[in-house]
């Protein structure tokens, strides 16, 4: 009897006994009534090792069992935090080599799968070590006018053999998809990003290339930093345009912005349009534009391709900052103008075509053959020719005189021939309009000749009057003397 009672007392309750309806979807789970799950097994707590006062070789990470690797990892980070004078290769050569070998090992360790479980303390100390190495005062020459890569030898930082390994370690930490951004963003914070942006002033192109890759990856991986990065880049552009006109990393920053602009969603935010108006267009003003113009033009064209309504704003901005005495810069502007016009729609073209072709007409008559030739190349684009043909009644009267002068007197044969081809194109396009412009040009020429003859006649009469006056005064003086 006792056994039966024990069996009945230990019977498991059925679901229906607990009021559970198997067909019901409105089930409320009371988590407080459940026993709390067992916590996951935590790795061995890693403690900060005592500070090191000298560099000594340490065993390799792969030679130790996994539980002992993280304390050794922290000790190796301490070794890599030591600073040396790399301008003198013979000074501290042994310590430098130990640091280099340690950095190489850390890069391999982070790149391998065994480093995925490194603790938060190890991540924090690693970012501190990276910061202590790369965030430094730049050489005195840094921040001045950027060197022309085609003419000047680039500055090469003597610290680079070790700096490169530190940057490689940072890339291996930031780039992998399995990096936990929720943890990493505690260490890759706004202060870290701000210091990265300051480093773009370095004159060493190798370092700027690494910085470009890392900042781009941070922008893509850490969404919380995106507005801060855009604002920081804007501030660098503002300071460059309106204050210093000296910065070595404008081209690399524009490359990053080109990729960012390519990902802008439509309709475009007002913040992004203001960036175009207040930063990108004024970047056409500084003298060293030739160093970064390719990247700048790409960013500007990206805006027009994203939103065709910005074409009028961009073209008028180019006209505002158009160079007057720098022919090399003028050729760059003409090339960018062609790319913008190829993305311009007819309505936007009509809004700016008058001031645009007034500038083109002046370029057609430039004595610098490259400027004149580059402006004539606009007619090589089928899209631009279609836009011009649709508005030929406005455009041809503006540029006809410049084309005629080129065919009459320009010294360069290529410019002469291209001008003849464009005249022939307009003649076939609209013979009546071409004839009207021809007559108007001839009338203006005849009037200008008449005005010139009248001016010369007045000068001749004035010269004769002066000679007569001198003759009379001379006779009077002669009579007085005699």
TrEMBL record:
Residues 36-52 have a biased composition (Pro residues). Residues 1-13 have a biased composition (Basic residues). Pfam families: B56 (PF01603). Residues 1-67 are annotated as: Disordered. It comes from the Eukaryota. The B regulatory subunit might modulate substrate selectivity and catalytic activity, and also might direct the localization of the catalytic enzyme to a particular subcellular compartment. Belongs to the phosphatase 2A regulatory subunit. PANTHER family: SERINE/THREONINE PROTEIN PHOSPHATASE 2A PP2A REGULATORY SUBUNIT B, SERINE_THREONINE PROTEIN PHOSPHATASE 2A 57 KDA REGULATORY SUBUNIT B' ALPHA ISOFORM. This is Serine/threonine protein phosphatase 2A regulatory subunit. It comes from Brassica rapa subsp. trilocularis. The gene is A02p001010.1_BraROA.
């Amino acid at each position: 009897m006792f056994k039966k009672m024990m069996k009945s007392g230990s019977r498991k309750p059925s679901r229906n006994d607990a009021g559970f309806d198997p067909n019901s979807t409105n089930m409320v789970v009371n988590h407080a009534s459940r026993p709390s799950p067992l916590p996951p097994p935590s790795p061995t707590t890693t403690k900060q090792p005592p500070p090191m006062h000298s560099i000594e070789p340490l065993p390799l990470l792969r030679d130790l069992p996994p539980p002992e690797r993280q304390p050794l990892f922290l000790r190796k980070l301490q070794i890599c935090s030591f600073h040396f004078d790399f301008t003198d290769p013979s000074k501290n050569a042994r310590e430098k080599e130990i640091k280099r070998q340690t950095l190489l090992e850390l890069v391999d360790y982070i790149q391998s799968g065994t480093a995925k479980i490194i603790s938060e303390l190890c991540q924090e100390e690693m970012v501190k070590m990276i910061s202590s190495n790369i965030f430094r005062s730049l050489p005195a020459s840094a921040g001045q006018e950027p060197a022309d890569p085609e003419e000047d030898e680039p500055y090469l930082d003597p610290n680079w053999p070790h700096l490169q390994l530190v940057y490689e370690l940072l890339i291996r930490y930031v780039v992998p998809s399995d990096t936990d951004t929720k943890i990493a963003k505690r260490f890759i914070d706004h202060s870290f990003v701000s210091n990265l942006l300051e480093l773009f002033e370095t004159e060493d192109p190798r370092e700027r290339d690494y910085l470009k890759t890392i900042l781009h990856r941070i922008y893509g991986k850490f969404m919380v930093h995106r507005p801060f990065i855009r604002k920081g880049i804007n501030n660098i552009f503002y300071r460059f345009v309106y204050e210093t006109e000296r910065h070595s990393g404008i081209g690399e920053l524009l490359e990053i912005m080109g990729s960012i602009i390519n990902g802008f969603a439509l309709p475009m935010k007002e913040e992004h349009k203001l960036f175009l108006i207040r930063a990108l267009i004024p970047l056409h003003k500084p003298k060293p534009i030739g160093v970064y113009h390719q990247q700048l033009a790409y960013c500007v064209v990206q805006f027009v391709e994203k939103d065709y309504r910005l074409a009028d704003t961009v073209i008028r901005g180019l006209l505002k900052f158009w160079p007057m005495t720098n022919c090399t810069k003028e050729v760059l502007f003409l090339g960018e103008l062609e790319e913008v016009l190829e993305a311009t729609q007819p309505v936007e073209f009509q809004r700016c075509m008058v001031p645009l072709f007034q500038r083109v007409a002046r370029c057609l008559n430039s004595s610098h053959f490259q400027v004149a030739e580059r402006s004539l190349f606009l007619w090589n684009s089928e899209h631009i020719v279609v836009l011009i043909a649709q508005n030929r009644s406005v455009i041809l009267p503006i540029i006809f005189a410049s084309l005629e002068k080129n065919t009459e007197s320009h010294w360069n044969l290529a410019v002469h021939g291209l001008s003849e081809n464009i005249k022939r194109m307009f003649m076939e396009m609209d013979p009546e309009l071409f004839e009207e412009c021809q007559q108007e040009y001839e009338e203006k020429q005849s009037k200008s000749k008449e005005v010139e003859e009248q001016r010369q006649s007045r000068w001749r009469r004035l010269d004769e009057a002066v000679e007569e006056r001198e003759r009379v005064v001379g006779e009077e003086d002669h009579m007085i003397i005699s």
